[in-house]
Amino acid sequence: MQYYILVAVAIWSAVFVDSRNIRGISLAYRKFYKEKKTFLCLDGSKIIPFDQVNDDYCDCLDGSDEPGTAACLNGRFYCTNRGFRPSYIQSSRVNDGICDCCDGYDEHDNRTRCPNTCRNLGQQERAALEAEMRAVDDGMRLKRQLIKEGVSMWQEKQNQLKDLRRILSGLQTKLDAHRERKLEADAHQAKVMGVLKSPEDGAGGEIAARIFGQLDINKDGSLTVDEVQAGVVNLQDDGNLTEEEVTIKADLTGDLDPPDEGPGTSAASSAARHGEADLKEMEEALETTRAEIRDLEKVLSTDYGSSKEFLYLQGQCFQLVVYEYTYSLCPFSHVTQKSSTGAEVSLGKWQYWAGPPEQPYSRMEFEGGVPCWQGPLRTTLVTLTCGTETALRWVREPAKCRYVMELRTPSACEQRREAGRRGVHSEL
Ligand code: MAN
């Protein structure tokens, strides 16, 4: 009985080719190499006797009958690479004297000895992967911190904006009042000038001219409100003032409040004291405040990521020297290129986040830089990658005046998914 079983196994082995012995095929393909007597080329084009598989003669157009030899030009050999990751190589590399698979299975004609380096490679790759995962975890920790900072910076800027708007409205009220006072003072001045100039001829004219001369302290031929105010009280009525002089003085003092009136100083006198210079100063302060508000509104209207994780980059610039150029990236603002000869050109102004829908914050687009010689305006695309530092990693110009660069930042880190990240066999 035992004898019959042994004979049956021997016959079965002879008839059925054990696909585990077929070199150069993956586990997934083994089912196609289990024919009894024939083999169907994988492209379905031909049926050949099974003993023509891996017989070092190419029968199938797709090279599928020679997975383990170099016979077919278009064939491919599967490296199992146990301990590392499997891969395919061109069949022409089988038995060519060079070890391509780390398990050395591609050199099976015993002419070349290939040490198995898969385990080593696997260990190295696992170590690199683990280091990368640790870096992502560290990056995520930093990112959480940056989010916190971003949120409080955002709040700070909102408060700043509120304060500036309050200041602006205060300044506006002050300026309006100041302008009104100035208008009143100007009207007074015009009236004073009218009083002094009206008696054109005769004694009245002479008196007016004399009073004008007394009031015109700096002798520039014109009277300011200050001069009138300062001088009019000095027009002493020593009993010798003529009737006209008394009338003129009454006109002047009636229209203008005397100086040093104390806390009750009228609008006209206070406006006279402030004068043009104050008005200008106030207008300048108002414009500066308006500009600060505009800048802040612009900053606050920018998208800094779903949790404001990129806000910390605002106002910062990152440099990198590549050959004769120093590149400077100022996120949310602009990119420049400065040559060693000193000229600095714009490589674009901040436009928008340009990442794909699933990762919108992975790219930044800068456009509208200095025009390229006989070409388009310079543009820059920045790719953001995860890391524990914030730094410009590299800059390239793949097409003329089209720049690409990588900015490494913890804010680009994404929470790791524990499953499905293993690239290396761990079964070994
Ligand atoms: C300068 C630089 C280069 C660019 C050329 C185009 O040399 O901005 O990056 O390619 O101009 O003329």
Please describe the topology of this protein.
Layout: H1 2-15, E1 38-40, E2 47-49, E3 76-79, E4 87-90, H2 118-197, H3 202-215, H4 225-232, H5 243-255, H6 267-300, E5 318-322, E6 325-330, E7 334-339, E8 344-353, E9 363-367, E10 379-386, E11 391-399, E12 402-409
Parallel strand pairs: 10-12
Antiparallel strand pairs: 1-2, 3-4, 5-6, 6-7, 7-8, 8-9, 9-10, 11-12
The structure holds alpha-D-mannopyranose.
Descriptive notes:
The protein is of the alpha+beta class and 428 residues long. It has helices at 2-15, 118-197, 202-215, 225-232, 243-255, 267-300, and strands at 38-40, 47-49, 76-79, 87-90, 318-322, 325-330, 334-339, 344-353, 363-367, 379-386, 391-399, 402-409. Strands 5-6-7-8-9-10-12-11 form an 8-stranded mixed sheet. Helix 2 (118-197) packs antiparallel against helix 5 and helix 2 packs antiparallel against helix 6 (267-300). Residues 5-18, 255-271 and 420-428 have low confidence and may be disordered. Alpha-D-mannopyranose is lined by residues 337, 345, 372-373, 397, 400-401.
Beta-strand residue fraction: 15-25%
**Numbering strands along the chain, what is their spatial order in the largest sheet?**
5-6-7-8-9-10-12-11
Structural class call reads alpha+beta
| Distance, first to last CA | 40 Å
Identify the quaternary structure here.
Answer: single chain
Would you kindly provide a brief summary of this structure?
The chain is α+β, with helices and mostly antiparallel strands. The chain contains 6 helices and 12 strands.
